[in-house]
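ok so for the tutorial part 2 we go from a plain amino acid sequence to predicted structure tokens. step 1 is just haveing the sequence, like this:
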Amino acid sequence: MNRVLLTGRLTRDPEMRSLASGKAVTQFSVATNEYIGQGKEKAEYHNIVTWDRLAQTCGEFLGKGQQVAIEGRIQTRTWDDDTGKRHWKTEIVANHVEMLSGRRKKDYAAESAANGLASQAAAYGDDAEGDADFDESAAIARAAEPLSEADEEVVAA
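step 2 — the prediction. this is what the tokens look like for a chain of 157 residues:
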């Protein structure tokens, strides 16, 4: 069984793009901490890939520093560059992403400014728990279908 469950924080904003096939792909990285005793932690960094509707949702709602829960599978891709050098990349192909902290700070500030609430936006920071307009179900998604081999090869390039 190839199943991964992670809870961590995004280390950078997601990068979303569309492939020639029309499928959306979003890539980002998540940091997790492992407690190793005596008050010490060890950080691990994981490359995450999402596809289609989930990719669009992640690209729109996620941002650096947000805490997320990821469910997916580990995949290692190999490809040869133009010089013939072989490259390897291990990543997690997510089929479920759940936001554990609110929407991006900049999105909340922009909407609040439009509503005349700019001075209150900074007080909420990354967690906009008091925002009645925020539909969290839109930020929680599950991938509908597995990747084709052709799409996996395009992402490797």
